[in-house]
Amino acid sequence: QLPxxxxxHEQTAGAIHRCVEVxxxxxxxxxxxxxxxxxxxxEKEEPVEEQPEPSKPIDPIEEKKKELLRELSTLGMGxxxxxxxxxxxxxELNEEYFRANLATPLARHELMTLLAEQALRLPLYVTPVGxxxxxRVGAITASDAYxxxxxxxxxxxxxxxxxxxEVKSIADNGRYEIRDVDDSEKPLTxxxxxxxxxxxxxxxxxxxxxxxxxxxxxxxxxxYPQTTVFYKGIVEEPPKSATDPYKVxxxxxxxxxxxxxxxxxxxxYVLAFRETAYKPREKGGDKSExxxxxxxxxxxxxxxxxxxxxxxxxLEKAEETKQQKIMEKERKKxxxxxxxxQKREEKMREKERKKKEKAKEKKRLxxxxxxxxxxxxxxxxxxKKTEEEEKEEGGSKDEAAEREVEEEPRxxxxxxxxxxxxxxxxxxxxxxxxxxxxxxxxEKDSTEDEM
Length: 451
Known about the structure:
By secondary structure, the chain is an alpha+beta fold. Among the domains are: about 80 residues; about 160 residues, SH3 type barrels. Helix content is about 55%, strand content about 10%. Strands 1, 2, 3, 4, 5, 6, 7, 8, 9, 10 and 11 form an eleven-stranded antiparallel beta sheet that branches. Helix 1 packs antiparallel against helix 4 and helix 2 crosses helix 4. The radius of gyration is 45 Å and the shape is elongated.
């Protein structure tokens, strides 16, 4: 039922977050109202000296203003408390939604999308007037004595790298059992507090709490985009608003400057830099087995090992990028070929349709011509018959007239035959011309496909 609950509260969440964005003005009003309330309370608590008070006229308007200010202060504080309760509930729903999705089997790209969405849902901390933000707000780091809770997300130093992990349990000796977010089947890793950095619980507003934002050129640990590993980097540009990300240049020896181009990283995944050379211990086995499994290494060997691992990661990343480019190229090529095939099929269908329409039109015209010739022949025959009848009534005929009458039908028949032959020739020529046009178009399409 969790997605339904979240969906039902989306509009409320949007309205509340808009209220939070303008809560600075409300907080200022509340601050002034608190001052007025304190002044009123102090006046009430001060003992009244028994001295003759000078008779001053009481201004009813000023008294009315004070009363309205007290009512407004009470109303404003009640609204602030209500908004905070709603924001807390929305925060709990977002966390439940994130954990429910994280517990299901996810593909790599789905996990990256989920982590990016959770970073955007990180709540904004609205600092009360005159107060300082607590730890785990933006860049304000928790002290080493700070104790994490089960379910907290953190950066954990495991296998010579800082990974994104989740606290699964806490041992009696204060050590934490960490689960790798990117590999749920991997055994839990036991780590000391010094190798665990909790993630921020709230975003900081650069306008109100600029001291809770990492400055330019600050060394930090940031989650590299599309991975679950934190790398050393430097802040190129801090966020200018509560919703803006950091722009971080990561430490990378493959670039001439030693740093990668600036990449955007949300506030949730930007931590204070901490360097450690301790080895993690995996859960299980006694102390002697763990010491045998992790032999002591000199600083030079550790440095070489780190350099080799960095090079290996760089090569893997380059290979992955190369494969992605090849796959993208193949996909675009397949899409282009499919589009060409679709266009060719559409052209063929259009040609067939036009050809059928043309043939149909030819048949219709030929039929009309035949009907017209038949009609003309019938009219001539009728006319001839009428003339013969008139001549028979009028008397005898000349021999020349008889021959002329006998030759006229033969001439007309010959003319009709000549017309039919001409029509057939025209139709044959048109069909040959169409076949030539179709052949030329097919050759043109084939050359385009080859190109």
